[in-house]
Design brief:
Length: 76
């Protein structure tokens, strides 16, 4: 059985394109869902499917805290 571990991830539509930041306990499964448009919403609408960054965390609260920090970042 694969151990699930909380993670924060960033997906992109293309180089310098639209970004999406999320948090999950199953990174491989969640990325698969995004790539295969199994989830209705932002990533499907804007074709945001490319995993460009991820961080694993010990607990979900830590992952959520980090996700909030990342979402405050400004693009340059």
């Amino acid at each position: 059985m694969i151990k699930k571990q909380p993670a924060v991830y960033i997906l992109a539509s293309k180089r310098n394109g639209i970004l999406y930041t999320g948090v999950t306990a199953d990174l491989l499964g969640r990325v698969w869902e995004h790539k295969n448009d199994a989830i209705e919403g932002f990533t499907k609408k804007y074709s945001v499917h490319r995993l460009v960054y991820f961080e694993r965390h010990e607990t979900m609260p830590l992952a959520i805290e980090r996700e909030k920090q990342i979402k405050k970042w400004k693009r340059k």
